[in-house]
Amino acid sequence: xxxxxxxxxxxxxxxxxxxxxxxxxxxxxxxxxxxxxxxxxxxxxxxxxxxxxxxxxxxxxxxxxxxxxxxxxxxxxxxxxxxxxxxxxxxxxxxxxxxxxxxxxxxxxxxxxxxxxxxxxxxxxxxxxxxxxxxxxxxxxxxxxxxxxxxxxxxxxxxxxxxxxxxxxxxxxxxxxxxxxxxxxxxxxxxxxxxxxxxxxxxxxxxxxxxxxxxxxxxxxxxxxxxxxxxxxxxxxxxxxxxxxxxxxxxxxxxxxxxxxxxxxxxxxxxxxxxxxxxxxxxxxxxxxxxxxxxxxxxxxxxxxxxxxxxxxxxxxxxxxx
Amino acid sequence: xxxxxxxxxxxxxxxxxxxxxxxxxxxxxxxxxxxxxxxxxxxxxxxxxxxxxxxxxxxxxxxxxxxxxxxxxxxxxxxxxxxxxxxxxxxxxxxxxxxxxxxxxxxxxxxxxxxxxxxxxxxxxxxxxxxxxxxxxxxxxxxxxxxxxxxxxxxxxxxxxxxxxxxxxxxxxxxxxxxxxxxxxxxxxxxxxxxxxxxxxxxxxxxxxxxxxxxxxxxxxxxxxxxxxxxxxxxxxxxxxxxxxxxxxxxxxxxxxxxxxxxxxxxxxxxxxxxxxxxxxxxxxxxxxxxxxxxxxxxxxxxxxxx
Lengths: 322, 307
Prior knowledge:
By secondary structure, chain A is of the alpha/beta class.
């Protein structure tokens, strides 16, 4: 399957985000490059502090870029853009936040929380239409119209997150940046929110940028995955390809950390600890290179040869197993 | 044990029903009111406060008290009368009715307290909210604040009262000209605390304007701290008015004033103690009750007390 014939919705080019603190500089994201195709779920995985949220926020234009650009539907949206483009981008790219308790205004009713975007862009003809839209948005996420007059603190975590989803959906966006939307939720309701996100994606033809650290969740929801480590994207591949043929040592280490529900396998499992300092860094500077169509890995030529050999070995083993 | 299947039936699972919230509807202001009237002490103090405030607003209309008018000034038998039915608070050194004087003074003090606090709060909150939001405004506002807050208020009050002369309007001007900046600074700090919370980020992602953010996202969270500030500010302003009048900087001779009264009657503290203690007690009752009621309102407006 080639990615060439799919439409690129969002493209991140050489993105770099730097934080300044009293003269000290910290590069949170280093030279990130990836495309998100229309209609797919693209996931960013990595440990805490790896810069995945920063990339999401850079796309939302909350964090300013220190280099590179973000292109949405062929138009640059990073840096200074015209007021009209700004309004378009706000409407087309929406965000779902990590902590549903913190991301809703506690002193406003659900009706206001959900209509906030409608008010800002005046996306309704009259009050009746606005209320109808709010009712529809709440219904889409499985809430009841009578919840409109309630306050966020009266809801459970899952319900609150669904209010957050309704608030984003009412803008009829094309791309949704979901910043760890389920990591603050109880395990019992994670599936509910994930299924809802999948359902909405199919109904409305949405594209997701899904930011997470939980690999089992990521495997369930995404079409393609980018693994990020210390601000650098180390591997991008389609979900099954990545789980079957992880190449970069960090990816291998990350996959080995997924707990197995079978105690026998879990006990026998060997954890691979990734240590950047113990790796062989000889040779030229590594870059993100395409090893198979759609499978990118961060490597220099020497490492590329190693990965290629490993990949061929894995493919041979699979062929013989069949 | 027999198996009685008919005792149990399968319950239907209704997804809609499971979303329903059983708790009664929450209303912010209703909860504030309920918490406020729950405390019997504050309700009592509130009634005292309202009685004193309403009485001091109405009584001067009927008494038409004028401090410059002393018809009994030459009648020695009318001076220094002890409190009686006809003169509930007695009379002073020039035969004026102290009862009328105290309430006229209380009225002026209250009006100044409320008006100055209102002006200071309005300007302070508006400036402070923008100040807390705008990083570029913060750069120069903080310098303005540093300069203004380092000039002693008494110095400003003295110079201005010599320039403007004493009187009702100039006193209000003096009390407001620089004091709003302290309110603004306080609000600025509060705004900064909640400015970067995630729900504000969410609002920004939805394209909400700064003004809407201030009125819908920030100020509703500040109601209780603003209430606390007002509860402190009104009695403090009244005390300051009394203090300035005591020094001779506040209201002129032609305005009834508790402060001027207290300063005048200090000399009679030993011979005729009621002349000194009655105005002081009225001032104390007004300040303390306003403070207690204000604090209770501030507590009640904090939603953490609503549970």
